[in-house]
Design a protein that fits this description.
By secondary structure, this protein is mainly alpha-helical. The chain is 50% helix and 0% strand. Helix 2 crosses helix 3, helix 2 crosses helix 8 and helix 7 packs antiparallel against helix 8. The longest helix has 19 residues.
Amino acid sequence: MATSQRAALLSRTHSVLKKHYKPYLPEDRPLLEQLIYASCLENASYSQAEAAYDQLRREFFDWNEVRVCTIRDLKFSLEMLPDPEGVGERIRQILQNVFERTYAYDLEGYRKLNLGKATSSLEELQGVTPFTVAFVTQVSLGGHSIPVDKAALDVILRLGIANPEDIKGGSVPGIERAISKSKGPEFGSLLHQFAADHFARPNDTTILGILQEIAPEGNFLPDEKTAPKRTRKKATKGATKKAPAKKKVTAAKKPTKKKAPVSKRKPR
């Protein structure tokens, strides 16, 4: 797709999604906590991510306890997320890597670095993804980076904004040029909300209707990979009607023989 066409389709996506969703701006958090929140948010709705993040804060004494706990415990705490085990593993990796580097759970020093250095330092942490780095860059570091996770990339592919070769690195080429920095947080929020809904219900009629509204020339049929399979009974050759059920024949009861009366007289 030509750059101008991609930009036009992204702009139309923004306009249509504003009709169906309201922008949502996450609260300001310390950098490390924002990174953990972003890990919960990947492929999940904002309400799911906040519930998971709050659960971690309630159930564990501090981030060190989260770092040393088992994946099973984390999976149980993050059960409201689409991939609780994967998220739990990535959060533990982030905390472990930060602890090994700083012997603390604090990344506020990254705010003092220039944007390029801060971003590259985040990318070096184990457990981060392109989505979590882009989210923290946009929300906490003031950079122009629109976060896209697998859920958003699925929408981008389905709309034809990019092809599989374009998004191998986990980003959409030209998206930051098509969407200005001033509109970036709003667009990222709207896209994420729609993508999370699409990820959970790709064949929902409302979801398909929004896709059609964005790209009227598209043909958005239910995705066969996620649509429920229909099973058909094989018809037998011959009769089309069911044979009438046979009546059960009950055998006649045999007459019972009466026992001879027993004499109560004593023998002589």
